[in-house]
Each structure stands twice: as C-alpha cells, then as structure tokens.
Specification:
The chain is α/β, with parallel strands linked by helices. The protein has 3 domains: 119 residues, Response regulator (Rossmann fold); 170 residues, P-loop containing nucleotide triphosphate hydrolases (Rossmann fold, 3-Layer(aba) Sandwich), CATH 3.40.50; 140 residues, Helicase, Ruva Protein, domain 3 (Orthogonal Bundle), CATH 1.10.8. The chain has 19 helices and 14 strands. A 5-stranded parallel sheet has the order 2-1-3-4-5, with helices on both faces. Strand 4, helix 4 and strand 5 form a beta-alpha-beta unit.
Amino acid sequence: MKKILVVDDDLSLRTILNETLSTAGFNVEIAKDGKTALEILSEKQFDLVISDLMMPGMTGIEFMIAAKNIYEKLGFLIITAYGTVETAVEALHKGAFDFVTKPFSISQIESRVNRYFEYQDLKAENKALKRKLSDDRKHTRLIGQSNEMLKVFSQISTVARSDAAVFIQGESGTGKELIAQSIHDGSDRSDKPFLKINCSAIPESLFESTLFGHEKGSFTNAIKMHKGLFEESDGGTLLLDEISEIPTSMQAKLLRVLQNRTITRVGNTQEIDVDVRVIATSNQELDVLIKEGHFRSDLYYRLNVFPIMVPPLRLRNSDIPILIDHFLSKFKIKYRFEHKEVTAEALKFISKGDWPGNVRQLENIIERAVLYSGEGERINVEHFNLESEVLNTNDASSIKTVTTIAEMEKQMIHNALKRTANNRTQAADLLGISVRTLRNKLHQYDEMGQDMLKLD
C-alpha cells in the first residue's frame, strides 16, 4: 500500500484529504506544519508528500528541500492559492512533481495522486526494460562462453545494481572498458552520464583541472570556468582507465574526493557535492606498485571494493571460434561482402596462438584478413601471415609464405579499388583512410612502376 503524508496548517483540509485518500486505498498520515512533518519523515518512509505552499514557520518549498535531504527520491505535490502560482512553478523547478490550485475538487487531487504513481510505475518499468536490454547488449559486446567469461558475466550482474567502486584488472585488449560499460548499463545510473578518461593521456599539470574543474583565471589560459569530469558525470559513472598512471601528487586528492564525495575546482575553495560511481582499470599489478611506493595503498583499497579479473585470450581460447564469427559478421557488413568464411585449417592455425594483444589483436587481424582475401569467399591461413611473428603457433608447416606489412597494405588497396571500380573516394572509405592518404600511396606505387589495377 502506497504511503502518503499530508502537510497543511488547515485542519479541515487535512481531515478531508485524509478521509479521501484513505478511502481510495492509500495509507495516509497528517502533519500540521513542516517541522512536524520532518520529525515524522525522520522515522518513517513515504512514497508521496502533499504539502501546502504557504504555512507558518516553514514554507512548502523550504520543507520540500529539507525533506529531500532526508530522502532524495520522495515525491511532492504542492497545494497553492491562485495568487501564488508563480511560486508553485518555482517548486516544480526545485523538485516537486506537480501542483494544484485552491479551490480544488476531490477528483482533482485523486487525479494528480494517481498520475504521480502511474508515472513512478512507468519509470520503474522503463528501468527494468533498460536493465534487460543492457543484459542482452552485454552478451553481444562481451563475447564468450568459456567458464572464465561466464564468471565475469556473473560478476557484472552481481555488482551492477550497487554503487560499489569496481576495479577491473587485465591485460591490454581484454575488454576492460566494455565490462565497465556493461556495469554502468546494468545499473540504476544507466540514464545518467558514463564518462571515461585514460589517466596515461593527461599531462600531470592538467590532471587536477581535468578531474575537478577550474575557475576562470585560476591559471594561464583558464579563460572561462570549466567543469571537471566528476561534475560532468554527477549522478552517473566515471571510468578511470589505467589508474596506475595517475601522478603520485594527485592520488591523495582523488582519495579525498572518493571519501568525502565532494570536489573543489582549481582556483576555488568551495566544496561541491558529487554523486559519482567510480570504476577503475589497470593492466598492471597495483600491489607491486604499492610495494615500490608508486601507488597509495589506501587509494587502492578505496578503488578495489569489488575486483574483477579479466582473463587473457590465451586462457580462454575456446572462445576464439565465436569471437571470429562475431568479428567476421561485423566486417562483412562494413566492407559489403555477402559471402566470406574462415577455413577450418585457418581456424585451427589461429586457435594455436598465444595472442599477446588479446581480443583487440584478434579483431584487427580478422579485419585485415577480410580485406586481404579480396573477392574470395574463403579466408585461408596465408591471409593471417602478417601476424605469424606474434601468433607463436610453433607450426612452421602452416605458414606457407611470409607477407610483409607493405605487401599486405598494397594488396588491401588493390582489393578496395577493385571492389569500387577504381572509385578513390569509395575505396578510401572502405579502407578507413582519407582520399589524400590513398592518393599519396597510389602516387608512391606509380613512381615504383606498379599498376594497382594489374596486381593480380
């Protein structure tokens, strides 16, 4: 049963609303003013508050702000006299759901109350649908059926709905960012920002400003106020990628933000409340960095509330066939090939690799192989020879020829031109390069006396 708190200094109105809403099936309590209502709210939880706007001691808006400090998601319906509609509109901007002007009928109040709960039900259904969709998307972005990946999927589902800090550790190319995105998508913050920053890409001098923002004139070239990533991601999730690269000078400041949930812009002393869930990733062993004095142990413990270890591809090579199938489908669409398949011999060859670049490396060589195979419908072992020095297959018999990067690049350009009837703009688009870059390459081949249309 939904619980409603009615707050009004008019006894007769309180009584009428109590009887009406109780008859309609709601659990109703009443209070004569804001102070009394706050005392009730400190002990009991309600779904909706119906409050008069003008009351002695504390206005309806002042009461609402104080009440939302106790329970932020508490709904408010404001009652106002005709002459104070502008103030009621102000209440909407400050968080009220709706207002009703005096005099009003019982049916009007019932309609507003029912509308509020219908809206809340719709929001709940929408969140549930988003979570279901995010679960579906999770399994399309994060590919795997191995026991190692099923464990990761289970961890994502376990932690997503909480606000716990998550620390994702794994080698480069294993999908740490995709896991962070899946956690955000499956959380109650999914409709809020998901921002990410690579800690290794920020100059040390700009780190504090990037994370916490700065005021105009706080340093050279600070020509206007700038919100940092914590403010921009308020209510959502912030991914600190490669957290091991954060400067030592910044670690204490980040720890303080995580503890106090407040930030201070550079050039200001005012603290700003932020509600941000932090997910951190690293491809390094942080406990080693801690022992060496390069990373604070207290910051690590604050970040490592829920650890997720991402397995490298070499420890889940049973996932390689379905990963290949996924990437092959992706690049067939991208490059407009209707038929293309990896031969059993090539699949066996690829599965033997140790994949130091992990899933990202596998995706890259599948894309190259799709292009290098040209109009052919079969992708063979030789189409993967570019990676033979890193695949470490120890199977020399399966490597028929050694293809240099320059030769493969030339073959890919040839195939692209052939597929587009020598249309350079379309060929450059297929290759993911600019027309200017393609023109320069063709000029280079021309100087070498090579005709790209007669390469076969």
